Every structure is written in C-alpha cells, then in structure tokens.
Give the backbone structure.
Amino acid sequence: MIPIFGAIGVWLLGWWLNSRLASGPYADTRMVRFLAPLIFGLTVIVIWELVVRGLEVSMVILPAPSVIWDRFWDSLPTLWADFVQTIIKGALSGYIIGCISALLMAIAVDRWDFLRLGLLPVGNFVAALPIVGTAPILVMWFGFDWHSKAAVVVVMVFFPMLVNTVAGLREATAMQRDLMETYAATYWQSFLKLRLPAAMPFIFNGLKISTTLALIGAIVAEFFGSPTLGMGFRISTSVGQLSLDMVWAEIVVAALAGTAFYGLVAMIEKAVTFWHPSQRS
Amino acid sequence: MKQIIAVLTVIAAIVVVWYAACIPMNIKGVLTEQERAGAEVLPPSAKDRRDMGEIGLTLNNSFAIPATWEQDRPRLPAPHQVAIEMWETTIQKKITSKRSLIYHGWVTLSATMLGFAIGTGLGILLAVGIVHSRVMDLSVMPWAIVSQTIPIIALAPMIIVVLFSVGVQGIIPKAIISAYLSFFPVVVGMVKGLRSPDAMQLDLLRTYSASRAQGFWKLRLPASMPYLFASLKIGVAASLVGAIVGELPTGAVAGLGARLLAGSYYGQTVQIWSALFAAAVLAACLVGLLGLIERTVLKRMGMAQ
Amino acid sequence: MTTGDPVIEAKHLDLTFQTNDGPIHALKDVNLSISKGEFVSFIGPSGCGKTTFLRCIAALETPTGGTLSVNGMTPDEARRNRAYGYVFQAAGLYPWRTISKNIKLPLEIMGFSAAEQEERVNKVLELVDLTGFEGKFPWQLSGGMQQRASIARALAFDADILLMDEPFGALDEIVRDHLNEQLLALWARTEKTIGFVTHSIPEAVYLSTKIVVMSPRPGRITDVIDSPLPKERPLDIRDSTEFIEVAHRVREGLRAGHGDDV
Amino acid sequence: MTTGDPVIEAKHLDLTFQTNDGPIHALKDVNLSISKGEFVSFIGPSGCGKTTFLRCIAALETPTGGTLSVNGMTPDEARRNRAYGYVFQAAGLYPWRTISKNIKLPLEIMGFSAAEQEERVNKVLELVDLTGFEGKFPWQLSGGMQQRASIARALAFDADILLMDEPFGALDEIVRDHLNEQLLALWARTEKTIGFVTHSIPEAVYLSTKIVVMSPRPGRITDVIDSPLPKERPLDIRDSTEFIEVAHRVREGLRAGHGDDV
Amino acid sequence: DEVTLQLKWVTQAQFAGYYVAKDKGFYEEEGLDVTILPGGPDIAPTQVIAGGGADVTVEWMPAALAAREKGLPLVNIAQPFKSSGMMLTCWKDAGIAAPDDLKNRTLGVWFFGNEFPFMSWMSQLGINTDGKSESGVEVLKQGFNVDPLLQRQADCISTMTYNEYWQVIDAGVTPEELVTFKYEDQGVATLEDGLYVLEENLSDAAFTDKMERFVRASMKGWKYAEEHPDEAAEIVLENDATGAQTEEHQKRMMGEIAKLTAGSNGALDPADFNRTVETLLAGGSDPVITKQPDGAWTHQITDAALN
Ligand SMILES: Nc1ncnc2c1ncn2[C@@H]1O[C@H](COP(=O)(O)OP(=O)(O)OP(=O)(O)O)[C@@H](O)[C@H]1O
Ligand SMILES: Nc1ncnc2c1ncn2[C@@H]1O[C@H](COP(=O)(O)OP(=O)(O)OP(=O)(O)O)[C@@H](O)[C@H]1O
Ligand SMILES: [Mg+2]
Ligand SMILES: [Mg+2]
C-alpha cells in the first residue's frame, strides 16, 4: 500500500510544482515551457515505477521504467541497428519519396483545375484506406526488406501531403494574384514568386503530420514480414518471447525518434516561414 | 456537375491504369499456371522466367494477358474481381452470415462508434482542461504530441492483454485502441476552437464581468463548433483505423480487420482488397455523415450561410 | 449641456507595457476629468494610447501608476457593477446568435428575467432603429446595421457610461454620417456620459462637447478642446465657420504632436 | 494642369456579375473619358462599382457590354504592355520578401537586369521617402510605410497610368494627410495619369482634378465634377471656401444617389 | 464451473478437439462452461495467461519453456499432440535436396515464439543465421501466409503439414515441385500444442479438479474428432467467426491433425519432453533456454483425468 500512497504523493508534488511554475513570473519563458512537460513526464514515470512495484505487476504485463531503462542501455547496438533499418532506411526514404511526389502531384492538381475537381475527392477516399490493410499487399509486392516499408510510408504520407499542399497553393489571396495579373506574369512566375512561398506554412503542416505517419507506417509494415531486424520486427518477436522490457525500449526509441524528427521539421519550418504570423509571435 | 464529370474521368483513368498494372503484376503467376495447364510458354523454365522482366514476359506471351485479369489468387486483382467479390459478400449474402461484409462492417463499425465516442469525449475534456488550466497546457500538451509517435499497433496487443487481465473483453479493447487514435485530432482541433474567440470577444465578456463558466458556454463552446466538426471528421477516420488495428491481434474473430487478416493469411488477395474498399467506403460514409450533421448544426446556429 | 460631478477622473495616470522588445510607455502622466453627461472624443495618431486609456477606464488594462476613478470607485469595481457599456471597433456580434439574442447576451449574463430581457431588447432595437431585424443573423445585415446592433447591445443594460473605441472606423463615410447623427440623438435623449475614440477630425468635432488630442511615444494628452458648438447639431453644421475653426484647431494640435514619422 | 488625348475611354460600359442570388448589375452605361495627366477620383457608397470600374480598366474584370480603351488598346493588351501600376487597398506586400525585394518583384517578372533593378528600387524608395528601409520585412514597418512601399512597387516599372483602389483606406487621418501630400507631389513631378478610389470626400477633393461620383444598384456615374482648385495645393487649402464648396457639392451628389438604406 | 481457454492461433481444425468437446456437450457433461478464445498473429497466449485472461492455454513447448525462464512459471498439464507438424518447404528447382543445400539461401521463418525449433536446427547443422554466406542463411520474418514462397521472395518457408503446405498446393503448385524437411524427421522436433497452466494454480484443489474434468472432456473431443474428421471440420467451420475458412481446407487439415494427435492419450511422454529440451538447449550461441527446466510438466492432472 505504501507505494500507492507514495504514487499519490508524487502526483500531488509534481502537480504542485507545475502549478507554481505556470503561475510564477517565468511562466512564459522557454525554460518553463521545457521544464513543465519534463516534470510531468518524470511524475508519470515515478508513479508507474511505484505502482508496478507496489502492486507487483508481472514483468510480462507491464515492466517497470527502471527495467526498461536498463534494457535500453544494454541493448543499444540492437536498438541502433533496428533504428537504422526502420527509421533511416524505411521511414526516411519513404518520407522523402512520398513528400516529393505529393508535391509534384499537387503542382499538377493546382495547374489543371479539372484534376483538382476530380482527383481530390478520389484522393480523400483512397486516403481513408486503412494502412494496415495496404501493408500486407505492399510487402507482397516489394519484398521483405525496407523497400516495402518505404512503399507503405509513401502511401501513408502521400495524401495528407497532397491535400495540404493543394490547399496551400490556393492560399495566396485574390489580391496577391491580381497583383501578378497586373504584371502580366506567366504561370510559372506567379507560381515561384507567389504561390509556392505562400504555400509554405501549409506544406510544412503536411510535412509535420507526415513525420509521425512515416514512423508508424514503417513500424507497422514490419509486422507483415521483415528481415530479422527492425523495430517492428523486434517488437513483435519480443512480445512472443515475453521480453516486454525490449518492447518498451523500442517504443522509447520510436517516441524519441518521432519527437526528434518532428522537432527537426518544426525547426526548418521556423527558418523557412519566419515571416508567417504564427512564427513571429 | 463539372465536378462529377471530373471525378468520373479520374476514376475511369484509375481503372484503366489498374487493369494495365494487372498485366505485369500477375504475368508470372499466370504463365506458371498456363504452363501447368499445358500451354506453350516462353521461356519454358520457371527459373528463367524469374529473372526476366515482366514487360518482356508479357511481350513474349501476349496470349496470356486476358488471364491476368481472371486469376484466382492474383498479386493484384482486377477491378471487376474486387467489384464482384464485394457484390457477392454484401448484397448476395444474408447480413447475419459470417461471410457477409456487411456483418463484418457492422462489427467494426460498432467498435469504431464506441471508440469514437470515448475518444471524442476524452479529447474534448482534455481540450477544456488545456484551455482553462495553464498547468495542463504546459505539462500535458507536449505529451499529447509525443503519444502520437508511439506505434499503436505495437501497443494494441498489450492493451488487449492488460484489459483481458482485468476481465475486459470483446468490443471494449478495440474501442479503446480506436479512442486512442481519435482523441488526438479532437484535442488539437478543440484547443484551437476554444481559443478561437479573439481578444475583443473575450474583452466584451469581461466588460459584462461574466464568469468563466458563462464565458465557456456562451462564447468558447459555440465558437469552437466549426473546429470541432473539422477535427471530428479526421477523428472518425482515425477511429476506424484504430478499430481495424484492434481487430488484428485478437485474431481472426470478426470485423473488417479480421477479414483483412484472414485474407492475407490465406492469400486471398481479392478478399483483402474488398475488405479494404469496404473500410474506405465505411470511412467515407462516416465522414460524409458527419459533414451532413455539421452542415445542419452550423446552419441552425446561423454559422453557415 | 448637462454637466455634473466628475464620473471619470484620471490623475497622473501611467501605463508601461513590458514587451520582448523592451518597455512601451503607452500612457504618461495623463490627467483628465470627465463630468456626467459629457461626450468626450479622443483623437490622435496610431499608437498614442487612445485605446489603452479607454481600456484602463473599462478595467481591461491595469495602469502602472497614478489613480483612476470611475463613478468614485476603482475601475474594476465599476466593471463589476456593470457601470459601462463598451463598443469595439468591429461590431463583434456572435455569428451563432440572432440580433436579438446578441443583444440579450449581457442581459443573460447579468441575470435579467426573460420578460425583462424581451422588453429591453425591444426598447434598444427601437432606439437604434433596428426593429424588425431581431430574427436575423449578423451576416444577413450590412456593416452599418451590425454596428448599430452592437451599440444596442451596449445600451441594453442601461449603464451610465458608454465607451466606444472607433465604433465607425470600418464604415464608409455616408453610413458614418448617418450613424453619427443617430448617436448624437441618442446621447441627447439618454444623457449618458460617452467616451469616444476616433481617427476622424470631422467626426470628433461633430460629436463632442470635449475633444482630447493625444500624441504618441510616450502616449500623452497634448490638448483638450472644449467645443463651442450647440447641443443641437444638424449635419450641415459641418460647413459652418465655427465647426471649421474647431476642426482647424484640432488639426493643428494633431500636427504639433505628430512629427514626421509616418 | 496637363491635359491631352484621352488615355482611358469608356463608352456605355456595362458589367453584370452572375451570382447564385441572381445577377448583380455592377456597372450600367458608364461613360467616361480620362485625359493624359489627369488625377481622377471615384467616390460613392459601398457597392457602387468603383472597384469594379478600376478593375475593368486593369483588365482584371471583363465588361459584359460597351467599349473600353486604354491608351487606344483594349485593356488586356494594355495589361500585357504593362501600361499601368495598380495599388490595392491593403499594401499586399509579400511578407517573405524584404521591402526592396518586394519592389523588385515586378521588375524581376518583367525581366529587368539586376543593375537596372537596383537603380530603380533606389529611385522609387527615395520618391516615397523610404530610403534606409530596404532590408526590412513588411511587418517591421508601420501601416503607412507599408502602403508607401506598395506605391513604390507600382511606380517601379514606370507605367504611365497609376490605378489606386482606396490605397489609404486603412490608415489614420494624419498619416493619410501626409501621404496625400506626397502623392500630389509625385503626381506633379511625374505627370502620370491617376485613377483613385476613395470613400473620403476631403481626400477626393484635395487630390483630384476630376471627381466622379457614383451610385449603386445598378452601379452608375451620377456626377462628374471638375475641380477648380489650382495644381499647387498646400494642406491648408482644405479650409478654403473653394474647397468647402466643392466638398459640399460632392456630398450633395453623394446624398442624392444614396437614399436612406444605411 | 467456468474455464477460459486461450488458443494459440485462429479458429481452425488445429483446435478441433476443443470445439468438438464444446459442441458435443462433453464439457457440459463435466459441468464445465468453457469459453474458447481464438488467438491471432500478435497475441502471445503466455502473456494472456500471465495477465489472468485465461485459465489454460494452448501453446508450443519452446515458447512455454522460454516463458518459464523469463519468470512465468507455466506447467504442461496435458499434451494432445504427439508429433510435430512443422516443416520447411522449399522449391525443388532452386536446387535444394538436403539440409546442407540450405546454405546461402533465403529462408522464411515464423517468429513470435515459433522460431526456436528453427534456430536449434540451424545451430545443429552449423549454419549461422546472420545473412547469406557459404556457411549461413538469410532469415526473413515470414508473414501470415505463403506468399514469400509463391512470389519467390524466399527459397524456403516454414509450413505446417496441416495448413500452409496445403495453401502452397492450393496455389497450384504440385508436390513434385517442392522439397520438404519435417522437423520430426530431422530429429529436432519440439512438442507442439500442449495445455499449459500457471504453476501456482496447481496447488489449488478446486482448480486442479476443474482441469481434470477439462482435460478429460478435451481428450474425448480429440478422439471424437480423430474418428469423425468431417464432422469435426464442420464444427470448426461453424465456430469460425470470420467466415474466411473453407470446408475443403478444414477437412483436409483435420485429416492431417489426426495424424499428429494419434498416439497421444493426453499425457505427456517424458521422452518427448527430454528430446524437446535437448533440442532447445543445443540452440547454439543464442539458445532458447539456458538451463534444464524442472517442474515444467506434471502428470498430476492427466493421471487423475484419464484413469
Ligand atoms: N497588450 C499590449 N502589449 C504591448 N504593447 C501594447 C499593448 N497594447 C497596446 N500596446 C502599445 O501601446 C501603445 C498604445 O496603443 P493603443 O492601442 O492604445 O494605441 P491607439 O491610440 O489606440 O492606436 P490606434 O489608433 O492604432 O488604435 C502602442 O505603441 C501599442 O503598440
Ligand atoms: N466577383 C464578383 N462577383 C459577384 N459580385 C461582385 C463581384 N465583385 C463585385 N461584385 C458586386 O458588384 C457590386 C459592385 O462592387 P464593387 O466592389 O465594385 O463596389 P465598390 O464601389 O468598390 O464598393 P466598396 O466601397 O465597398 O469597395 C457590389 O454589389 C458587389 O457585391
Ligand atoms: Mg486603438
Ligand atoms: Mg471597392
């Protein structure tokens, strides 16, 4: 029982700390923006540890954070190899191919109104296809290695990216377009000088959404066949071996990689769309 | 009208490309079958054919092209095969039959709806908390984003097992996974919506010295409606994916996910594709339904012209 | 002209905003006393603190120095007592409420009975000449009508003070003339004290009993001009010599405080 | 006043928009001739077709009837010949470009050499009094400065005609006065033909050699007033009797066409 | 009394005995109300039973022993399957005739706890599994179907005699085109579908009593299924909620399953157990289990149930 009360105590402590931070004089500083979620995360981890130990939850159901931590450091080489296979080879290459082809398609859709009218509804329908269903098909087509994972990622990121880019390319105001018209600018001139820069916030929105999708896609696809490495492979075989600590270590890697990936894109976004009001405040 | 023509044209183009793609995709399998059936195939050895390009094979054996659209277990089924399968498993089967797509669709749909309800409820609550409490805004919001980088399919079996261990089975575990996927868009949209009133509108209430609750019910909530609906549409599609994911680890019991899995398990590509399309149709219907509700609600609220 | 006790009194009022780019001195040593029943206009270039001063009176902003009293109370007490109605530059009607529901909003919040709400809505709708439009949604009305509805909303709970921050800024000149006329009539009928921010010299001169000229960096009052115009003011008055003289004086005051930093 | 051949000539111009709520007759039987070097203001209540007429001249809208010629060509040919610069109500600078890059935009599109671009940018920046701000981004400038930059952008490629649609509508009166002065000076120096839409009577009277009063539903010209004011116009001119007379005439013209439908 | 049984895989004739026992009322006769939970690709039966989601589970012995080493004390209480149905199925035209030919090939293997017998076999053959080389093979994690073989993404894949092998045949391949290596024949057979419970429960008399009745009824079901394969297949089909199984496939599967259950009365043969353990202990550099397990099986239930 003591650990349970401990857990409640830790919770109250963490919450109290954050309340102080949030209402304190530095509430808007970068420091607090960084600290508050950290404290919250730590609180959750400590409570998790206490509850698992206190209630003697079986290792094969939910391992304690300390166990996961140990496993994480012990298995760094394995985790690294899995990371390279799944994230670098599978997710990243798929992300790049998917985003670029969606961008090109968006330009075509933007250029020919007919395509926009026709392709977007169909695209929305296709985007509703559950990825888990396409994964086995793509594994069948593209083989077991990372190529099929990349293909799954391409399918996953293509439509969010397309829809966002198309919306972005229509973002320039009527006035801005008219201005180009008064200069008798050609299509490509107005595309390069107006529509593309104006679309950047939207394009980056699509790129950000796609980061998490890419990760999930690459991992999920490995459930349907893979070489003997990769994060999805490790997760599914480790569950079978009841190495739940390994499963959680991979989840930690996924979360770290996802957050870093997202953060990186957000940083580039900040540099590219520095002019947008949402980035200026 | 113009839109309909455009959509039909695009669909027609896709169908044509699809049929064309069937040829190289299926040619190897078809040739093997034809060879077994005694047809003359070039080159005759399966091993040589393996190393040859699909296009070359097709050119060598153009007689086999029609067969690429009629295979039993094709790598890529032709559109009409999928259409026939869907027709047979929806219209021609009793809906209570385990072979009816409508039955499986219903199983998935019920988990989706329950999960969607849970996810939306939680999402709205969390959004209300984030908007009204700075502590929650600071400490919880970043984790809501991190939670989306966790591959749910990795967690799904564990969620199911953990719930098993506390005696929860059946629709609930699936609904919880589907709720996990749908809560995030709702949180994001709802936070945006609840924060959408501008400073002026908030100041107006201050001049009336309105309470926080009054501010919520009279300003923030109605103002958030368009955002809520936009994210509900994303959320319901995610919910469906969640329900399907939840059906995978529990094995081939019932539902579109089970159907996908069983199709994959037995190499029944036609069945996979028809389950896939059924899922997409279901998603499109759900999103369409929400769009309809959105329009009526916003119209009644006077927010849609 | 009805004058009486000072309803609003600012002494050495000071307000500095702390921003990322350093502090902004939005109001510096502002002294002003407004009596009951006065119509006071605030005019001055962008950023001179007109809005900030009005917001201080409304307790939407807290001064960093000096004293400010409204009806003898602190602004915040006055706010809690619902001592004033505030009209913003944009009409800011809630798009999901009909005109009459919009006007009822403050009444609901202040807990008036349904019957009383109904009665007051009808009264103010008549006052702003919008009877017959109660069932419409805001977007079904022209900009001028929306702005009138927002004035009706501020009038509905019958506060003694009316604070208006460029209420007609977004409207075209003709509509503006018309609303100015109506506002004057309303003021004459109700004897409210009105604080009015504007960018337009003719508007300020036409409406006010007192014109406060302000100047930026730091925001301060540079001139207070009492208008010699009679209370009864047809639109034509704007072509009169008195009018033009006052307008000239205001313009001079403005130019003096302005510099060349456009 | 330099007058010459008609640069813009509209005969029986008609434009009807087809909308979901039925057709809108935005311009009806508009006849107008503008000579080289004239400064023509268009004034009238909202929706009377001022913008539409200007857009027709700029070939951004296609009339449904009548004829319109610009420099003796069709408007579209004129557009292709880059015969005019257009200034919109909002500055509409691209936020991702610095001021000088914004001004270079039309020059890039029209294929000027880099050296020439540089030279022209410097020239127009000086003209609108913005030298020293070339490296700033639009949002780092005040509204008035942005609007001046947008005028500089329209001037950069040195078209003979300048079309301005309420360019100062969003600015405060003082800034507006200042820009009006500068615009007049610029016009005097360059001898451009200017078409200028405004809502403000004093502005129209102060600036123009010719004031076109328009009226809505259907949009049409109700009055064309030639200004007797001299070309040299200090700001004080606005307090002169001549000025007030013209202003009065414009106001009467406006009121006549307006009705009471505020 | 209520009993929850967790299966290792989806509803199919592999589990016919339990479905027959339920359908024919054998469980009811013993006063049991049995819930059968089908498994799936990502469900670890061991984890389910650890979480308390089931009383008894069908599992393969390698996975059960591995779990035991991980600290989950599973005990075999009955062993309806006498022989192993697992094998490696290869294309003959790839030039494979003997186990030694496997070197330098791509092999599809099931993971999720089912890879242990394969790993043992490879280490016995002295073949490493780190990738294609003169002394090694490339291992793929095979999905749930036989596509990797049909698409020739792998030279060999894992199959069960009663299931995947026939899917290959159903795809139009003739048995002559294939070469199969049965684990049973290679001497690396490990025990398959057995019934496992948590050790701590065995000291609870009420529980053991329940299990005795359960095993008795289940074995009755198995024997009935062996004798009436077609009827058993029908029963399985009725219990399949996906509607994906075909009658032909299930009947054939039942026939093959009967071969594997033949010779078992339900009680575990200690010799089979020892052979399994030896195979697993010989698992090379990364053995499935590292030490001789004890207490991993008991005759306590079968002794009481079958006499
Ligand atoms: N919340 C705030 N935070 C920081 N600075 C502010 C804030 N509100 C106003 N300011 C600054 O205070 C000064 C006065 O602003 P205020 O809005 O009162 O001017 P104004 O006279 O109303 O101008 P305008 O005519 O443009 O409305 C300006 O420099 C403005 O930038
Ligand atoms: N693209 C369009 N489609 C349909 N109707 C239009 C369009 N553009 C303008 N109109 C209508 O044509 C009429 C004239 O519009 P216009 O914009 O020319 O008026 P304006 O005089 O510029 O008014 P404002 O002072 O408000 O700018 C209005 O009734 C307007 O609603
Ligand atoms: Mg202001
Ligand atoms: Mg206009």
